[in-house]
Amino acid sequence: MQNSIHMPLQQKLKELQHAKQALLATNFYNFETLDGILKAAFSEGKSVILQLTKGSIEYLGLPVAMKLARAMLKLYGVEGWVHLDHGDSYELVAACLDEGFDSVMIDASEKSFSENVRITRRVVTLAKQYGANVEAELGYIAKLGQKNSELGYTEPTEAKLFVEETGVDALAVAIGSAHGFYKAEPKLDIGRLAEINRETEAVLVLHGASGIPGDLLRQAIQNGICKINLATEIKDTFMQTLRDSLQSNMEIDLRRVFPFATNAVAKLVQNKIRDIELKKS
């Protein structure tokens, strides 16, 4: 099995980019979801990115969240990185870098192009001092409860300019995915993705992978996606399984109840890891 001591995430993503492969980036929310994710990564012999949002950091506490992630990676012997997902301020990014995060995302995508560039460039300058990977977002990737629209899709020429002006390592692109659940079969603009990939050498990231079929994920990978984010399905799987188990018994010992939900998360992540593997003919 791999060792939890790892290469810089920038290097890993570049290797995947050249090989037309992708890394699964999974959000965790507590010990149980983290344990499920790492069970899956260990069983599949795969590396994984562990992601924390501002909300999860506030819930767990920054030092606790970081130490928990590092300790569990070491326990399982999984190659992994800790990443700030959708960081909304320079101050949060700085705190995460000080805590030892391998990678940070600054999300100024809802601001103007010039403001997004300014904020992202500032974060890139800071992160270089730590040797950390930086991800940004360009375009409109609908968040939970928001409407998806082609009007907000990432423009290839803007992506090229954005990367050149910021020096960002990874770019989350808007090509039809959305955060949360899909009300209809998700469609990705693979042609647009391929054009963005031709315009820039930055690593491309797909947010909103929950509910996207495996064949569509593999098409995205073949056209430049190297990092695939998974969050909503992890939360939903954990909570639905927990609800079902609580309805069927009167157990009061959480140590006997939570493992059902943890194992369900492990199965979900295991299947996602397999989904993004290139199928051999």
Q: Briefly, what is this?
A:
The protein has eleven helices and eight strands.
Description:
The protein is of the alpha/beta class. The protein is 50% helix and 15% strand. Strands 1-2-3-4-5-6-7-8 form an 8-stranded parallel barrel, surrounded by 10 helices. Helix 7 links the parallel strand 5 (133-138) and strand 6 (170-173). The longest helix is centred in the last third of the chain and has 22 residues, at 254-275. The two termini are 27 Å apart. The model has no long low-confidence stretch (mean pLDDT 91).
CATH topology: TIM Barrel
For the record, what is the CATH homologous superfamily label? Aldolase class I
**CATH-derived architecture:** Alpha-Beta Barrel
The residue-averaged pLDDT reads 91
Assign the structural class, choosing from mainly alpha, mainly beta, alpha/beta, alpha+beta, or little secondary structure.
alpha/beta
The share of residues in helices is: 40-55%
Alpha carbon gyration radius: 18 Å
Low-confidence stretches: none
Largest sheet: 8 strands, parallel, barrel
First-last Cα distance: 27 Å
What key attributes describe this structure?
281 residues, TIM Barrel, eight-stranded parallel beta barrel, globular
Spell out the blueprint of helices and strands.
Layout: H1 9-19, E1 23-27, H2 31-44, E2 48-52, H3 54-60, H4 62-76, E3 80-87, H5 90-99, E4 103-106, H6 113-128, E5 133-138, H7 156-166, E6 170-173, H8 190-199, E7 203-206, H9 214-222, E8 225-230, H10 232-247, H11 254-275
Parallel strand pairs: 1-2, 1-8, 2-3, 3-4, 4-5, 5-6, 6-7, 7-8
Helix pairs in contact: 2-4, 2-11, 3-4, 5-6, 7-8, 10-11
